[in-house]
Protein 1
Amino acid sequence: MFLSPNILGVLFALTSAFIWGSGDFTGGYAARSRSQFHVLVLSALSGLLVLIVAAILWREAFPSMPSIFWAVLGGAAGALGLAAFYRALSMGHNATIAPTTAVISAAMPVIFGAFTQGLPSPTQLLGFGLAFAGIWLVSRTSTAGGGVSRQGLLLACLAGVGFGGFFIFLGQVELGKILTPLIITRSVTLGIGLLLVKFNHLPLPSLASNRLALLAGVLDAGGNLFFILSKQFTRLDIAAVISSLYPVSTVLLAYLILKEKVTHGQWIGVLVCLAAIGLITN
């Protein structure tokens, strides 16, 4: 039996969430020992190389000029989001920073979609609400070393705006184009990262200086790829909200690797997110 387009879009978005969560955890950990701008450059470079190879093998043509314009804007927004996000994660409190960013980045496409595509069904709206609540529970009940600093919270909000802009801008790219728009966004991200390195009077990072950053870039590119695939089959707000559940995997990785405590409230948040997915797929 064939899956409906909406279900297929949700599955792609779930894959994006898992990969993004893994990439964000890796990038944040990489930024603990290196400048976030170095991490941004290395991750943008590794992701770009992977996308170029995939596009050559797939033989995908470049998109139209309007799609290139949206891809450029998406790359700029993504660079802003990644730089702020990696810096925030490097300050600790992964289980607070990541969900805060996710709530903001998911809310922006929902508001945008309400104006451009109309409201989704009441059941899906309820699912959106549960998704936000689940992410909030995962965030609020974190007890990893006290409360997050004001600077960390501001960076998380800035990252959310950047990622929300990325969702919206990439959502405007023409259907059928997957890899080449991401090459454009990644090239812009790399260029902005290099400018930030120069502006902050930092040396260019060597490829061997931070292998975790390179891995983070590959994972982030993979998450982007599955988000674009999701957007091909479902509404922008649905793809964005489901993809924004990536803090679940970030928190679980922090629990398994860094031994950060996951409270009962956070587990409840995970269950609420699962319930949200069920409602959104209806």
Protein 2
Amino acid sequence: MSQEPADDDWRLQGQERYLAGASLKLMPWVSPNPSWDHDHCEFCSAKLAGPGIADALHQGYATQGLEHWVCLQCFQDFRERFHFRVLP
């Protein structure tokens, strides 16, 4: 089991305001509108995009409205701290 990140972890930038207790679903990245070609992890800023963008992650955890994405590593690192709920 990995160690919980410290309170001064560089990835923590006040996300608790909008992600504490969030319901997230593991899914392939999808665009919320035709002009959108990628998103970034809310913690580490890793790029999430469709399979046409080679230097990006292609799946992550997303909120129901697709407004917030969390990469797999940051999800694992902050799941307990933020009390994330996983949607089926």
Protein 3
Amino acid sequence: MKKIMFNDRYGLTQAVLEGRKTMTRRIIPLCENDLNFLKIAERGEWLFSSRTCLDGAYPAYRVDEVVAIAQPYKDAHDLVPDWITINGYTQHWDECAGYSNKQFIRAEYMPHQIRIANIKVERLQDISEEDCLREGVFRYDKPPLHHEADMFAPWAPHVRPYKWDSDNLIYRCTARYAFAYLIDKISGGGTWNCNPWVFAYEFELLK
């Protein structure tokens, strides 16, 4: 089983576990000469039934694949076995490298999984308002400020305290605006404006 990692700093793992996040976009590493891929993607002819590499760009997961949600062992210790075996060497869960760093966890010890339901290829800015919400953008039942249009935030209020940043308060009037802010935080400033090709994975939480 493979694993998939979501950003914890902005509460995206928790958003998946709460059922608020059911999509994730991953940037496709394209080179300048990947013209074949661009032409196929623009025509909507990308086929995901095959794992064949096309100019170095292919999805990391396939439709119907079950993938483990990566969490540090310390965050899932109630559901992780006391003893974990890695390369034939057994350690207690709180002595493993994955205790605080989920890059080193083993997928088979993760208590939560998702199933990949669909994959599509698109430009980042092609995302819809509905898909922005499925990416984990938080929608308020009532406006948090005096401005009644500010109904969205890049992450849930319990994740990080809201404060003034360099340009504006991080409440947003559309889910798309909030997602643009979020993706720049996760993938680096300017990601939204660069409008890269992405794999958009739709998934469902299994447990």
